[in-house]
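General statements about sequence and structure are easier to judge against a single worked case. When preparing material for the folding task, we compiled for one chain both its residues and its backbone structure tokens. The amino acid sequence and the backbone structure tokens for this protein are reproduced below:
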Amino acid sequence: MTRPIKSGLEFEASFPVKGRILQAIMCECEEEGEIRIRISRDPQKGWSYDPKDPKTFLDVHAYDPRETYAKVRAGEWADGRVICYGYLKRVRARRIEMIGSVLASGTRLTGAVHVNEAVEIDFGLFRSILSFESEEQRRKILKDAGIRDGSFVVTDVGVDLELKRWGPRETVLRKG
């Protein structure tokens, strides 16, 4: 069993999603909720997916701090954004990967590092661009973390979901 990653370089990234609500529930703390949404694995090909083919979709289980979970219903489609955050740790790897077909808080993701004018981490499903106060600080932090262009990092991602609108599939997928 791998140890959880609790320190290192921090990152945050968000990406747009449109998909079908699978479940919306209140958490035990009664201050936030959790929404489960099924999205297309490759939005470049469109937001639709084949529910009989698991290779075409990904389930996102995310916290909802805005109390949208009390308003949406399972079966509706929703439009919003997923926010992923966490700590990065350098690892020996050869490819970008996500274990399983569910993106939830605690999911272990491996990403590829690209260093040029910016430091970009490609996790496959999304990309994160790291920002630094100065070029000197950037060099020092990357050197201390052992991260350079072409290396790989791993994270136990945290996942939040902010929904903008929801309703029938035709309404949500309509362009505009």
Observations:
- The mean pLDDT is 90.
- Helices lie at 135-145, 169-173.
- The first strand starts at residue 9 and ends at 26.
- The radius of gyration is 17 Å.
